[in-house]
Each structure stands twice: as C-alpha cells, then as structure tokens.
C-alpha cells in the first residue's frame, strides 16, 4: 500500500484509475460544508468538491430543508466532477465504491409512505431535556439530548400529532443512504447516536428496547420501536448499491452509472476516528468544527452514569466515550471576520488562511492564563455547561490585560473549555487511559497553535497527522475502500494499508500552559452566570 502522504498519483495513473472505475467516493454533510472526496485504491486524494450551507432556526428549532440537502449534495458532486474534468480531462462516470456520512444524531421522521412528517431536527437542538433525564434514569445509561431516541421520546411527551403516524426515523446519513440505495441501514457508529448499542451483539441493546417499549406512553403508540429504527451495520458490511434512481439523484446530468457498492452510512464522529486512525482501545481523537467532540475508544464500559459523556461506538462497533460540545468555531469565525473587515478597510490584502494563521500565532504570545479575559462561544445551547440556549459573550475586568495575543488566546481557550468538561470526567473520574490523542479539523491547519492549546487543556500529548486536513469525507471514502478488505480488522487495515509511515507532529503539554489553562478554566466556570444573564437579557431575533 502506498501511503497517501508519501507520494501523489501521477496524472496518467490517476486518469487510468478514474477511467476504469478504480476509485472510492466519500461525501460528508457537515454543519457548514458538504464535501466530496475521490480517492484511488491507495487512499490518495484525486479530486474534491464542496458546497457551503448553514442551518436555520425555524420555530425555535435548528434545521436544514431537505431540498437543500439534495441541492448541496448535487452541487458538491458536480464540483468534484468538474475537478476531475479540469485535472484529468475525463468525465466521471464510474466509481468503484462510495459512502456517505453526516453530522450525527438528530431526528428525521417519516410516515409509512416515506413522507417527511416534521422538519429535520439537528443535533444542535436542546429542547429534549425531559426526555434525556427520563431515559437516562430508565436505562441507567446516558441518553444525550442530541440523540435520535431523545427527540422521539420528547415528541411523545409533548403529544406531537405526527408521532402515531411514524413509520421510520433515522439520521441525516441514514436518510441520504436510504434514498440512494433503497436500504434502511445505518453504520453502527451513527446508530449509537440513535439508540444504545450492545457492543457484544453489534445491535441495538435489546434490554433497553424492551424497557422503552414498557413505558406506558410508548406502549400506547401504534408501532413498535424496533420497526422504526434502521438496521445497524459494522464497517465493511454490505450496505447495498447505488440504484438507478439514486445515481440520477446524485448526478442529474445522467453521467454517473448506477451499481457502485456503498459502505454503511456513518456519522462524522466515526469518519473522524477513521481519518485519525483512532479506532483501537486507548486511542482517541478531537474533531473540531462548528461543534467539537473528543472521543476515546474504551477498554470497558464506563462504570457510572455520566451525563457529560456520550457512550457511542467506533465504526467497528467497539465502545467509545465522547465529550461533545455544540459550539466551537462559530464565534471564533465571527471574530476573525471582524479582523478581516478591518484589514480590508485599511487597504491590506490578506488571504483567509494568512489571516487565521496570523491571529492564531499571536495566541502563543499571550499570558498563560489569557490575561484575565474570558469568552463564551455559545451560539446555541450547551448541555455540558447547563445552558438551554446560547449567546456569544466576551467579557473582562478592568484590571485584565487586553491585547491581541491575550484576546486570541482567550478565544481558543474558551472554544476548548466545554469539551474539557466531559474529558475530565473520563480521565479523572473513570480512570480512562489514553495512549494517543489526535487533533483533526481546520483549526489545526495553523501549525502548533491549536495543538499546543489542546495539549494544555487536556494535559496530554496531542498528535496532528499529515492526513488531518483530509477530513471526514476522506475518512468516509476510506471506509468505502474497506469494503474490499474485510479479511482484516478495521484497526489492522488502517494501520497497515492507510497510515503506515504517515508523517505527524506531537505537542507535549507545557507545564506553564497547563497551569494557565486551568486558571482560565476556573475563571470561565465561575463566570457562567454572565452567560445565563445574557440569555435572559438578549432575545433571539426571528
């Protein structure tokens, strides 16, 4: 296997692979971008395309219209096909294997005829607190507010009229896969964000299904919960193939041929684990985007019930613990936009990448504790911080040391603070051991900065691999390639065929930075009443 970062395919070799259909396609529907990546049999990127989109707050709930889902998928695929055409002079007609992933959790509910019953409810919604509490107590197993079963149960508790009409519910990745193949299946990692998984059977937990059935308000429904859920599949299992209707749906030009085998659809947590080679016990990754999660593959189930930790699985079905924060880059990006506007007003010409790099690097020059500044990056509610809604807030005392470097350090510190809450539970309360933790996402594109700050936040070495920029869409394409390598475990396949010899850098925690982050974190937690006051004082604009 040729490592994807050791060499690049020659144009002639890439063109031949594309012409012969020896390629793998991964498409991931993230919170702000839909990205498509085409790779060869050595997992080297051949072409890519993307489409930007944003969630909408409609009637108090975060959503994306399904029309925008397909508009975005078609646009991302069209951009990929155009990239293939411009690079290699070829039309894209045959793809060897493909897979689709998306933001985890949420609620897409359909009736028996396949009609959407209510607008898509994303992971970002935090209106399911009552369901979270009741189900977590019933199962003695944490059911986060974002999980699909929490959305369903909250709808039952709220006596929503669509509930008796339910025929099927799934995640965004499961929905896309269903429409492209006709199969109602889901990758087990994504499934674990719908309903608890039994890692022994690699299926939904039967005892918990029975407990849910036993709730009087559930027993009164005209359906059985098992009939509503998609079928969980582990990585490498047959998940169907691209139908003629699906090919036309993805590529309305008609150039794309049907028949490509599809990998089980996964969530962004699972593709992040694959893209960072973090599927073995005691390995983990931190995937940072609009939201952020820190994931550790566990050697055993957690002993106690911890609302701060999502009990999920790897794409192979092994148990993992995830600290998930709803908010990460939205506030940071808004502040960078302010500096971009200033640069333009001053007649300065800077690329977006250079602007981010300049601002991020300044954070390393700040005081260890960010000079007494504090920031709350909450665009939406944050369970880890006990917030049902969010309002971005920057605050400081009159004695604080206001400077660009301290300001940017506070921005980055605050972005990592919510996810630290759950990680501290795993490492400090449950004694979870972590041999390696890999940073993943655009925030790590500027060398060392976010890496050093995360090492301080978790007091652990943080590795960033050369594949970090490839992203979840690349990870999904790798899972599509794994369809042909089921003779190996997923972990062995990644070690031997994908990541052997991958270049990486590791930042060890600096004791002064660790001490500074802890001081900031204490100040951040003590100042949370500021955020709650802002929620009460600043109304949401419709």
UniProtKB/TrEMBL annotation:
<protein>
    <submittedName>
        <fullName>Sugar kinase</fullName>
    </submittedName>
</protein>
<feature type="region of interest" description="Disordered">
    <location>
        <begin position="253"/>
        <end position="272"/>
    </location>
</feature>
<keyword id="KW-0808">Transferase</keyword>
<keyword id="KW-0859">Xylose metabolism</keyword>
<keyword id="KW-0119">Carbohydrate metabolism</keyword>
<dbReference type="GO" id="GO:0042732">
    <property type="term" value="P:D-xylose metabolic process"/>
</dbReference>
<feature type="domain" description="Carbohydrate kinase FGGY N-terminal">
    <location>
        <begin position="25"/>
        <end position="241"/>
    </location>
</feature>
<dbReference type="InterPro" id="IPR018484">
    <property type="entry name" value="FGGY_N"/>
</dbReference>
<keyword id="KW-0418">Kinase</keyword>
<comment type="similarity">
    <text>Belongs to the FGGY kinase family.</text>
</comment>
<dbReference type="GO" id="GO:0016301">
    <property type="term" value="F:kinase activity"/>
</dbReference>
<dbReference type="InterPro" id="IPR043129">
    <property type="entry name" value="ATPase_NBD"/>
</dbReference>
<dbReference type="InterPro" id="IPR050406">
    <property type="entry name" value="FGGY_Carb_Kinase"/>
</dbReference>
<feature type="domain" description="Carbohydrate kinase FGGY C-terminal">
    <location>
        <begin position="285"/>
        <end position="480"/>
    </location>
</feature>
<dbReference type="InterPro" id="IPR018485">
    <property type="entry name" value="FGGY_C"/>
</dbReference>
<dbReference type="Pfam" id="PF00370">
    <property type="entry name" value="FGGY_N"/>
</dbReference>
<dbReference type="Pfam" id="PF02782">
    <property type="entry name" value="FGGY_C"/>
</dbReference>
